[in-house]
User: Which sequence fits this backbone?
């Protein structure tokens, strides 16, 4: 039973990290995002790659 809670806790922590990463990337000024070649449509994919490794 404890492994279930561990897996759930890990999943929740990753989901929180994903949403935090998306929010941080979206809060960057547009010129900074463009300099880094981060386009608005790519933000969810970049966050997923950073958190989940996909």
Assistant:
């Amino acid at each position: 039973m404890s492994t279930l809670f561990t897996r759930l806790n890990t999943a929740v922590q990753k989901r929180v990290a994903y949403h935090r990463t998306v929010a941080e990337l979206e809060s960057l000024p547009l010129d900074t995002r463009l300099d880094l070649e981060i386009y608005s449509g790519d933000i969810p994919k970049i966050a997923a790659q950073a958190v989940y490794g996909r």
In short: The radius of gyration is 14 Å. The mean pLDDT is 96. The chain has three helices and no strands.
